[in-house]
Amino acid sequence: MASTPPYTLKWGIMATGRIASSFVKDLLTDPTTRNVYDVRHQLVAVASSTSKEKAVDFCARVKAPSGVKTYASYTELVADPDVDIVYVATPISHHFQNTMLALEAGKPVLCEKAFTVTASQTKKLVANARAKNLFLMEGVWTRHFPLSVNVRELVSSGAIGTVYRVIADNSFNQDLPDSKLGFADSHRMVNLDLGGGAMLDLGIYSLTWLMQILYHLQPEKEKESPTVVSAINKYHTGADEMTSFIIQFPKHKSMGIGMTALRIASGVDYGFTGGPAIKIQGSGGEIQVLGPAFKPRQYRVIKKDGGGEIEVVDCPFPKDKNRDDWGHGMYWEADECARCLRDGKLESDTLPLDESIVIMELMESVLKQGGVEYPEIITNDVYDPNSLLNTGKA
Ligand SMILES: NC(=O)c1ccc[n+]([C@@H]2O[C@H](COP(=O)([O-])OP(=O)(O)OC[C@H]3O[C@@H](n4cnc5c(N)ncnc54)[C@H](OP(=O)(O)O)[C@@H]3O)[C@@H](O)[C@H]2O)c1
């Protein structure tokens, strides 16, 4: 019997920066290197808000096949009838306007994290996608790793009993003399105009670990949104540079403790020789996740009644030998988009849109409690196709 050919998803890429390049290189890897046979990806078009040359250079950088269209504006990209889905890889400041631009043109969207700057913006994106019957997902790649799937399944199966606490840290080693950080003040990591700060860029991964265990796995009928308290140290640009938060689920008697910081690291080598940055603690044992919170590579299961035995599981990121041994790990979230579109699903079960809204509400509250304020142009929730954020002028 002939096997069904894989479903092909045709991608349009909005922006030509660092993560767009990693994502596209993953799209171009052979899915069978990661044992995926039911879906595949095709790069159809790339747009730069700055110039066509930038889009052409991008295609050369990622070794794109010939025939990929290049545009000098995001508006042209979203109007391309060959594009099935738009990947938004602009700075966080731009996500609301750019995603709305694509949705308004009738395109499904995968938008990089953090979804938006405010919860109200995320709610408007979700409402618009639902009104137009368009697929939409926040690009939190970590959720789709086999490691995350395994860990969620382990917790659901009761392998460590009832989970009462998750601790997660995602901190970068960027301290320099004279109280500086290793970024120019204009860099998107610390520039408020671009949605900068530790929480939205890095803390979201700590929060991801807390939420995918403590919230996502709650049965639908028992869903309890958490409360949150936070503490923030600010950088001289006004962005948050060290942020800690506690989310609490009183009905479930559980808590999550999340941390992020730009000056110090989560551990000298992300827990492989020191303590793990992620600990999932249950009544019957503990799961420790090793490696950076955004890209962990190993987990350990330590059971209370296991006589000290530690089960160690490695979760590699498959590489494509025919594409310079490339394989970053973003292909799994791309595969999820392909399966959702193939199956007519408007959102992913792995990161449902209502959960993205709760996450954005938490992050907004964390930042408000610490007194972080972003400029009006990036917090307003009124869509404007001619916004400077859509035309490459901001
Ligand atoms: N999933 C992950 O692991 C991961 C890792 C890093 C970053 N990210 C997320 O990806 C997004 C982009 O991060 P990045 O590291 O790729 O940033 P980046 O290298 O600075 O690239 C951002 C791109 O956005 C476009 N852009 C439009 N207006 C801009 C403006 N005013 N300033 C700067 N760029 C502008 C530019 O492309 P054109 O000029 O060609 O339009 C630029 O190349 C962020 O939301 C970030 O949180 C995710």
Automatic annotation (TrEMBL):
Residues 10-139 form the Gfo/Idh/MocA-like oxidoreductase N-terminal domain. Keywords: Oxidoreductase. It holds the Pfam family GFO_IDH_MocA_C3. InterPro entries: Gfo/Idh/MocA-like_OxRdtase_N, Gfo/Idh/MocA_domain, GFO_IDH_MocA-like_dom, NAD(P)-bd_dom_sf. GO terms for molecular function: D-xylose 1-dehydrogenase (NADP+) activity; nucleotide binding. Its EC number is 1.1.1.179. It catalyses: D-xylose + NADP(+) = D-xylono-1,5-lactone + NADPH + H(+). Residues 151-287 form the GFO/IDH/MocA-like oxidoreductase domain. It is an enzyme of class 1 (oxidoreductase). Belongs to the Gfo/Idh/MocA family. This is D-xylose 1-dehydrogenase (NADP(+), D-xylono-1,5-lactone-forming). It comes from Cudoniella acicularis.
